[in-house]
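Q: What does the predicted 3D structure of UDP-glucose 6-dehydrogenase look like?
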Amino acid sequence: MRIAIIGAGYVGLVTGACLADFGHAVRCADKDPAKIDALQRGRIPIYEPGLDDLVARNMAEGRLSFGSDLCWAVEGADAVFIAVGTPSRRGDGHADLTYVYQAARGIAQALKGYAVVVTKSTVPVGTGDEVERMIREARPDLHFSVASNPEFLREGAAIEDFKRPDRIIIGVEDDSARAVMADIYRPLCAGHAPLIFTTRRTAELTKYAANAFLATKITFINEIADLCEMVGADVRDVSKGIGLDTRIGQKFLDAGPGFGGSCFPKDVSALIKTAHDHGTSLRIAETVAEVNERRKRAMSRRVIAACGGSVRGKTICLLGLTFKPNTDDMRDSPAIALVQALEDAGAWVRAYDPEGMEQAALILNEVEYAGDPYEAALGTDALVLVTDWDVFRRLDLKRLRDGMRWPIMVDLRNIYSSTEVEAAGFLYTCIGNGR
Ligand code: UGA
């Protein structure tokens, strides 16, 4: 099949590269000429494990190409995927659909024959209807369909998620679109990934419901972690104990500093707004958003308490800045609120992150950035583990401690066990362990 992808951001690149790898001919367009220039020269603008090799291989084999002209990408395509950004609109928390509608207008002008226009970006319920209306208004005689095919990719594991999905959700309103979408995903169906066809609006809502549910699960276990500390229980065992019940499931029950990233906070907020627009409210989602924001700010109080009640004039070492490992993404990372609160409380912050320091420096400009974890910890008064990168799981604890002024460790990801860290001479606190 011939496929066009509009937007060479995170979702567009992963989708384009994976669909090309299935054997489809993929043209990917982005209006940023610098990005296209870099991609054409084999440079990937984001950090995603395995993506550079996948892009390079499919480019070399002639199935994947990049350009800045939308008409070139759309020409002869059986399906055109809209994979542009949908940031939170400033002020009201709604999803900003400017780029989606711009893409729809461009596609309307460029289409020469039948194609399925597919929204891949996370878009509020009803966006597919609006995209269809816009194209029909611009091109009343054109035969086309609009489908919704939300992505469920986790940053850092996106290629695996695309190639081995739990399910593929496709919202269509007609048989032609259904047939094209079934052909596109046929290579995955051989691997028995369930293809769920539904209506466009249902598909759009399913994406938000999935993210809001996962965010709820995390927030629930975070609150249980706080309670564990008060009643003398251990949240790790509670997670295991409830997660082994297959109705609950073990995933997304790791207590931590609160969820961040470019999806959960934005999508929970957009879902809340959709409910308001329809005259109702999603009280659980509203509470999740509020509790999570409060939690991110509250993490600084843990560090201050571990330092004996004040961090004024002290230097705090942060290991990990990104919202999760295997990404360079700093958006809505719990590290941001933590650094700001520590600096407000009079501390100096020194930090190390394997991939995120370039992005972090754009937001957190008072922080001193170090070349490795040991350099970051040298001479500091406390060490805070913020992101659970694998490299932080096998630190030489004794070497770390020997370099520090005070051997205090605050583990916000429960990477270590207290026995191990205390044996290395640290005073250790983690999340949700009241024993
Ligand atoms: C999330 C979803 O997991 C994807 O399915 C979805 O496609 C994507 O959003 C999206 O809408 O595009 P992502 O934001 O990349 O993916 O990251 P997650 O791995 O879901 O983690 C989100 C946040 O939750 C991170 O801050 C992470 O540290 C936190 N988290 C996750 C926890 O605190 N505890 C957990 O048990 C799991």
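A (community wiki): The structure tokens above were generated from the sequence. The mean pLDDT is 96. The chain has two domains: 2-198, 232-435.
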